[in-house]
Amino acid sequence: MDNLLSKWKEGSSKKQIENVVIFIILLIIVIIVINSLFSEEKNVTQKIESQEIINNTVNSDELESKLQKILSSINGVGNVEVMISYSNTVTQIPMFNTKENTTTIEEQDVNGGKRKTEEISNEQSIIFEEKNSTKIPALKQTMMPEVIGVIVVAEGANNQVVKENIKNAVQAVVNIASHHIQVFAK
Asked: Which residues constitute the domain of residue 33?
């Protein structure tokens, strides 16, 4: 009988050790999965921020080069350099899934009094789309930055008529008041 009891205890302790080892392995797997989910979310956020910076640079450089090209083709202007300043950066507004729950509770007490309670809860989550095996937010709207000033340096800006033509052309392209446009001779 003692022999049987000692074998049972040995088997039981081996089983406990096996259970502890399995528990530790499962715990490690859960930690790895949670860590990968949070790091993936951070990567998506970092990609969005870097994409906004790249888009802003490309769009502002593109506008400056187009403006330089068109201004240099105006009669008498000559070689041109353009600098555009903006009030902010490109703003990208993502699309959201919105879940709204409304709970209404009507109570009546013994004395005939009534009470109505309404609880509204909203839950929003960003909609992601997959491109090249990376998740990026689906965009609802991209707002370009607002132009707040333009400086133009041109060879023909000594001539008052040419200077006025440059201001009018810039004003037509960027839609700002003429006092926000400065034209200087090279």
From this structure: 2-90+144-185
The predicted-structure confidence for 102-136, as pLDDT tens digits, reads as follows: 888 888 777 777 888 888 888 888 888 888 888 88
Cα–Cα distance, 85 to 60 (Å, whole number) = 9
pLDDT digits (tens, 9 = 90+) for 9-63: 555 677 777 888 888 888 888 777 777 666 555 444 444 444 444 444 446 678 8
Residue 136 bridge partners (DSSP): 129
Torsion angle (degrees, nearest 10) of CA 108, 110, 112, 116: -20
- Decide: 124 and 97 in contact? Cβ < 8 Å: yes
Q: How far is CA 176 from the centre of its chain?
A: 27
How far is residue 15 CA from its own chain's centroid?
Answer: 52
DSSP 159: S
Which residues, 6+ apart, have CB-to-CB distance to 33 below 8 Å? Answer: none
Q: Is 25 exposed, middle or buried (0-12, 13-18, 19+ CB in 10 A)?
A: exposed
Question: Could you tell me if 167 and 151 lie in one domain?
Answer: yes
Output the six-digit token pair for 120: 């509204």
Q: CB count, 10 Å around CB of 60? A: 19
